[in-house]
Amino acid sequence: MFCLVIPFSCDVERLEDTITLIAENAVKYKITEVMLCHNGGNFVRAEIEEIFDKEIGLFKLLHTEKKGLGEGYKLGIINASSEKIILSASDLPFGFTDIESFNNLTVLEREKYRVCIGSKAHENSVMEGYSLLRRLYSKIFYLLRRLLLGKKSPKDSQGTIIIDKILAKELVESVCSGGYFFSVEMIMLAIKRGANVIELPVVFRDLKLKSNVMVINLGLSFMHELLKLRRRM
Fold first, then answer.
1. What is the pLDDT of residue 213?
2. Nearest to 9 by CA among 69, 97, 73, 83
3. CB under 8 Å, gap of 24 or more: what pairs does 211-219 form?
4. d(CA 99, CA 120)
5. Is the pTM of this model over 0.90?
6. Tell me, what DSSP letter sits at residue 51?
7. 114, 193 in Cβ contact below 8 A?
8. Average pLDDT, whole number, for the chain?
9. Do β-strands 160-164 and 84-87 pair in parallel, antiparallel, or remain unpaired?
10. Which pick of 1, 39, 93, 96 has the fewest CB atoms within 10 Å?
11. CB 138 within 8 A of CB 119
């Protein structure tokens, strides 16, 4: 049922625990394929393949020379064959709680909402270690999205995304961003197309892993991307 897309670049060390966790829970959560999508340079296939058992038939290792989280997502979407695609991260910050919330939807709700967001901003989400500063950044970015893109912009556009495969494959051709803004752009293009979007509660685990993301630089980049997307829409 689910294709789990995991983009990664310099965070290979996170993958071993993530792969083990997925392999142990794949049947329970109906994960039928996992796309490990390496984006950027310094790719050594043999080193990465050593950390998962190819005989499982669950994992597929993909690579693109293009840098950026969004490029990894694009690669996974293009190669996915399952009914639903989950765009996640290499450390599975929500575990499988986004899938659990999706499974709690009624059959009619699953048909209605073609895009579901594992949302840190949902009132029922449990945030373990989510600092006040990060909450402030998220709130500011949400207000900017509302101002520039309209009131339909979700409260959290940087959570995991569970999306119909057919819709994802249609949208990916129109998404320009290859970086962190990919999620925002895909969600807003889906809304513009008329797709119903719902935010789902999750449990967030702050693993306090080292990140190479510079918040200020990322914020400036997001502003630039927001203005470009506003003009397009």
1. 47
2. 69
3. 212/10, 213/180, 215/137, 218/180, 219/137, 219/141
4. 14
5. no
6. T
7. no
8. 87
9. antiparallel
10. 1
11. no
- d(CA 66, CA 72) in angstroms, rounded, equals 8
Please report, for the chain, the start and end positions of each structural domain, with discontinuous segments joined by +: 2-232
Residue 182 and residue 69 in contact, taking contact as beta carbons nearer than 8 Å: yes
Q: What is the pLDDT of residues 165-180, one digit of tens each?
A: 999 999 999 999 999 8
Three-class secondary structure assignment of 65-84: CCCCHHHHHHHHHHHCCCCE
Tokens of residue 41, six digits: 């340079």
Closest by Cα among 76, 124, 115 to 97: 124
Structure tokens at 195: 């797709």
pLDDT in tens, 8-49: 987 777 788 899 999 999 999 999 999 999 998 777 777 777
Residue with tokens 């390496």: 38
Dump pLDDT digits (tens) for 42-80: 777 777 777 766 556 899 999 999 999 999 999 999 999
One of 3.80.30.20, 3.30.1330.60, 3.40.50.2000, 3.90.550.10 is the CATH number of 2-232, namely 3.90.550.10
Structure tokens at 104: 């709690």
Residue 50: how many CB atoms within 10 A of its CB? 10
Provide the 10 A C-beta neighbour count for residue 228.
Answer: 14
Instruction: Enter the tokens of residue 130.
Output: 């989510």
Give the bridge partners for 162, in sequence order.
86, 116
